[in-house]
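An instance follows:
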Amino acid sequence: MLRYFCLLSVLFLAGCAALPEDIHKTASYCCTNGNDSLLGRAWREAPQRQPGESAWLLLDKGVDAFVARAELARLAEKSIDTQYYMIHGDHVGTLFVYELWKAAQRGVRVRILLDDIDEGGRDLNIARFDAHPNIEVRIFNPFGRNVGRIWQYLTGFGRQTRRAHNKSFSVDGQATILGGRNIGDEYFSRDPDLEFQDLDVLGLGPVAREVSRSFDDYWNSPLSYPISALVDKDLSAQDLQVLEEALEKKHAQMLDSEYLTRLQNSPLAQEIVQGSLPWVWAPAKLVVDPPEKLLHKVGDAQYQMLKELRPYLAGARKELIILSPYFVPGKEGVAFLRRLTEKGVRVRILTNSLASTDVSIVHAGYVRYRKALLRAGVELYELNKLTMRDDRKTWQKGRLGHSKSSLHAKAFVVDRKNLFIGSLNLDQRSVSQNTEIGVVIDSPELAGVVASAFDEQIDAAAFRLELKQTDLGTEQLLWHGYVDGKPVTYRAEPMTSFWRRLGIGLLRWLPIESQI
């Protein structure tokens, strides 16, 4: 009886979660006069430009990815529209927010759309930021503020478990950055304990206008709430002054930051304006889930961007390379990949190992399909957590060492011709539950760069899995890789403890696949 009483109490508390009604929200849209901006002219006057094509630049290094965002913010003349799943209040997050603030001070309109997954306890500071006359912040699919969000998340299946995972940064409707990065130290090579290996792409031209239209859809969605509607406090000019002083103080303390040094010495802005940046010009297709996906039944295929990606995947003739940090293909996905290998397509997949993943429960879903994938002829690789791109050293509290490496890039390459980069993980949560965004670029040059990097680095960067028949007629998983430059073979999840492997073994039997 006590168990049922507790359950009813939890459901009651979740049911009491309430959002404000009759909120004041004015629809707004991307600027329409961005063609006359510096970025607009940079695209329009580029000699290599072809009708319908955008200019592209891959951003695979964390510091470069930050510098690109900051430079675009400094070039902004009309508007900055940015949508993220998370913006942390750490070193990189503070520098990012500071650039938005300075742009607003110049008269640029700044719109910030945040999912509410990581905003607990930060409403007042966000509202102070929103109080700037040129800045507006909205929260997508917010939790009720009158009940603890943990209870709401645990009991709010169908609403609070479904999030906007989109990531975009657009300026003047002319330039945009898409990819896997949230805003925080670990996504930009700053965190001393976790090095996310990620991938973004900077696009100039038509793709930016498409991203801006998608942003408007989310911004004006019924699920988007002004932060001011969620804060029960009237803010004054003094609140704005307090925030400005805090931002300036923090920024002054960061003047020796590697990020600001690189930003100060970066030629990126000048190269964009002068047209000397080594752009790759190519047509592309933006793929994005509509915001109303969260209002419809989970699994409704008409609201899933995967339906637009499937023809590219199914159209592979020779080769498919997939990078996905969280990979839970399901039985249907395994069958799909088997059909590709049966017609002669070489399928290679890189995902996280148990040691490198930052979400162990997703690994529990993935291991259910590992042997089936190998039987289907898929070449499966798991990231070696000791891999350090650029051999970067890190420091914290006087300690020198290496970060744990973890895959966070979401990309695929088809026949070294089409390249997808975006926020979509190939798991049930991304496909069915959350909203996502990405772009398929029709460029043998860019696709070739990513595929060649895979070819050159995969043996040293990851463990290759093998499914071997034992003398007893059973199947044994083996992990082949390198540690300290020497070849090694593991017969259990590399670099993990017995207890962690046991925990994953137990989790894999839980009926949670739709949530991971």
Notes: The radius of gyration is 23 Å. Residues 1-14, 388-402 have pLDDT under 50 and may be disordered. The first helix runs from residue 2 to 15. The chain has two domains: 28-280, 287-515.
